[in-house]
Amino acid sequence: MNRIRIPQLLRRAMACAAVAAAFAAPPAGAQQKPVNLTIGSFAQGSSWYVYSVNLGELLRGVLPPGSTVDTPPLAGGLANPQLVASGKAQLAFGMAVVGAWALEGKNGFNAPLPQLRALVGGWDDYFLVPIARGTGYDADMSGFFKSVRPKATVTLLQRGSIGAFGGQQLLEIAGADEKSLAGQGGRFEFGTFDMVKNRFADGTGDVFVQVATLGHPSITEIARNTQITFLAPGKAVLEQMNRRYGWETKALPQGTFPGQDREVMLPSTTTVLFASTDMSPELAYTIVKTVCERTDKLRAAHKALAGFDCANRTWTRETTGLPLHAGAEKYFRERGWLK
Question: What is the average pLDDT value for the chain, to the nearest integer?
Fold first, then answer.
């Protein structure tokens, strides 16, 4: 019998092990260890909460055994960046314009949050929608406060919400900030959606400004029950909203809400799913891959996602407001979308 030296046996064993490892190795970007995720969104009934619940369901099907995905109805537009930066949520839904503010530490953020990173942007369209009670007058927003109703009562959601924050920005540029309006005999009032709807119903509220997706339920309800006018910010106002605060401009399509008989150019932004640099590239890759390859399931969950398509520049800085996470960049490059 031929003798085989020990070094030869070792070399053969190592070669066999290498082949076995090659076949057993997970594909690039695969997530192997169990993870515990919390997804930040907003209150029950909100678009983001619906997105979060359905994304959570998809992720539970692809993450390693033993993983958990929690989708609590909490936080919101201005709170979610801080939630992710502090590690209280591993990913969250937010607005591209707010992400840019958080990154730089301005407009509601006391300090920069440089660790924030985008996963997928462009989920939907959000508009900063100003409506006024009554009809039969010019819809110019600045002119409304000068000649139509200088003593208007403006209703906004709670201070600190993105709706109130964006509304105050828009009203200030339109010449109807809280101090100026008070000088004319008008006032601001902050509260809930129920308060706003009641004010319009009983005639004690004149203007409501809110950030809204297509078919926003509260604006739809007000438009069905009360005659309203969709105010139109002038071109100069829209340009200032972009230059000073980073809002984009987009047309709210005619017929989006009851009684809206023309399109209106408004400040706009879009939803972005984001994480932080604490998230591993492998996990980020898995999340982005799941979103982009199971988009049909997400679209079926909410009509605001009807046009959502990962191939539609969902990785650009204009769409995300944040730098891309390394794992997201890897996925988009593999698909050939990001050069």
Answer: 90
pLDDT digits (tens, 9 = 90+) for 90-124: 999 999 999 999 999 999 899 999 999 999 999 99
Fold (topology level) of 126-269 = D-Maltodextrin-Binding Protein; domain 2 (3.40.190)
Q: Global pTM?
A: 0.86
3-state secondary structure string, 33-84? CCCEEEEECCCCCCHHHHHHHHHHHHHHCCCCCCCEEECCCCCCCCCHHHHH
Q: What is the Cα–Cα distance from 288 to 50, expressed in whole angstroms?
A: 18
Phi, psi of 133 (to 5 degrees): -70, 140
Query: Residue 75: what pLDDT?
Result: 87
N- to C-terminal Cα separation, the chain: 60
In the chain, residues under CATH classification 3.40.190.10 are 36-124+270-334, 126-269
The CATH class for the domain spanning 36-124+270-334 reads alpha beta
**d(Cα 214, Cα 156) in Å, to the nearest integer?**
19
SS3 (DSSP) at 192: coil
CA 240 to chain centroid: 22
